[in-house]
Design goal:
The protein is of the alpha+beta class. The chain is 52% helix and 10% strand. The protein contains 22 helices and eleven strands. The strands form three sheets. A seven-stranded mixed β-sheet has the order 3-4-5-2-1-8-9. A two-stranded antiparallel ribbon has the order 6-7. The N and C termini lie far apart (88 Å).
């Protein structure tokens, strides 16, 4: 079996081998290569210690020196090279209290999470697979290396990673591994929101976002997304799962679908430490989820477009299609395109009169300017032909006159 490695990776491995050490590409890159997927990055493991690695390569960075990791720089690329190691006890559900180096690749691979991630390769030795990772790849199985209770006890996030890998690879979680997740599910509480969010994102944009059901099946949802639980307990989760499965693999769309059914979009997004833009987008979409949009008027569509903004429109259409069926948004897409191609005004910034123009017509400073512009936008939204200076000026004058009269009477 031959795996085609990048030239820089082969060079690093061959230099280490030439210096008398062992060295292999390891982990996810080997897994992905065996699955004929393009690896995201290439990690290298070696029997050389960090100091020995740094003596061999002229350009390095101490990125994780305490855990045996040195980043080797090759031209504009960087590659993590990590010494074979044995992890000590884990007290925080993520970090080992101590790390000791070992001369054994087999011992190093034993500390990894799943068999499919515990394989190593170089051109000289071929595939090194002491724990049956290749067989599990062939059968589509997610299985812990060694004792699953021990593996999940070392890092509780691995329970969520098992579900994420199942969704991304269309694999099944092996029985003992699944039982261990159910048993240890409450321990996920020690994992940071940011790490949980990263795994949930990957799960949701995978080919099988409906496998979020495994959060309920394993009990993980009780801690990381309790709003999911009532949907499954009441037997109403089917629509959520089918909507997720039928949606486009877009982060904003799929989180909007999920929170449409669970409710609490802002609470969920903030709890998972999402950035403001994604949070605002999801919250905005979930407030524009009515099936009545299939019969919306042109003027009302323009008002909705103004609230959503043109950047979010494609996600809104995909979101509605996920909820109500593919093609639901066809008419909305066509009408919105017609509106934009015709340059019909639906944003205040596109009005033929500006705030400065309104002031020059005698409008009092302050919120009154916004009130006049908003009223003009409503008129133009209903009748696009009004959006010229000549036609808007008398309308604005009338509005300003009413404001001034009201202020004088007060």
């Amino acid at each position: 079996m031959h795996i085609k490695m990048p030239d820089a990776v082969s060079m690093i491995i061959n230099k280490l081998l030439g210096a008398g050490y062992e060295a292999y590409s390891v982990g996810g890159c080997v897994r992905d290569a065996l699955l004929s997927r393009t690896p995201y990055d290439w990690d290298i493991t070696t029997s050389a210690t960090p100091d020995q690695i740094k003596r061999i390569f002229p350009r390095t960075v101490d990125t994780g020196i305490k855990h045996g990791t040195v980043t080797v720089l090759v031209r504009s690329e960087s590659f993590e090279v990590t010494t074979y190691r044995i992890d000590g006890k884990y007290k925080d559900g993520r970090h080992p209290e101590s790390v000791s180096f070992t001369a054994s690749l087999t011992e190093d691979l034993l500390r990894r999470d799943f068999t499919i991630n515990a394989m190593a390769y170089n051109d000289e030795s071929g595939l090194v697979d002491p724990y049956g990772g290749e067989e599990d790849l062939a059968s589509g199985t997610i299985r812990c290396v060694g004792d699953p209770i021990a593996r999940f006890g070392e890092d509780a996030l691995r329970m969520l990673r098992a579900i994420r890998f199942a969704a991304c690879l269309s694999f099944v979680i092996e029985e003992n591994t699944m039982s261990a997740i159910k048993r240890l599910a409450p321990s996920i509480k020690v994992v940071s929101s940011e790490r949980i969010c990263a795994e949930l994102n990957k799960l949701l944009i995978s080919d099988h976002p409906e496998l979020i059901s495994l959060l309920y099946d394993t009990g993980l949802a009780n801690t990381i997304m309790p709003r999911l639980v009532p949907l499954f307990e009441s037997g109403t989760a089917g629509k959520l799962l089918s909507s997720l499965s039928g949606s486009v693999p877009d982060k904003t769309v799929r989180w909007s679908v999920l929170t449409h059914f669970t409710g609490g979009a802002h609470e969920i997004m903030r709890g998972l430490r999402f950035d403001n833009k994604t949070t605002d987008s999801v919250c905005l979409l979930t407030t524009h989820s009515s099936e009545s949009y299939n019969d919306i008027s042109r003027s009302d569509l323009k008002k909705t477009m103004a609230k959503l903004g043109t950047e979010l429109l494609p996600a809104w259409f995909d979101f509605l299609d996920a909820l109500y069926g593919k093609g639901f948004s066809t008419s909305l897409r066509k009408t919105s395109n017609d509106i934009m191609e015709a340059k019909e005004c639906f944003l205040m910034s596109s009005l033929a009169l500006s705030g400065k123009d309104i002031l020059s017509l005698g409008c009092p400073k302050g919120i009154a300017v916004g009130e006049v512009l908003s009223a003009l936008l409503d008129r133009v939204t209903e009748d696009p032909s009004l959006n010229t200076p000549d036609r808007l000026t008398p309308i604005a004058g009338e509005l300003i006159g009413n404001i001034n009269k009201n202020q004088q009477s007060e």
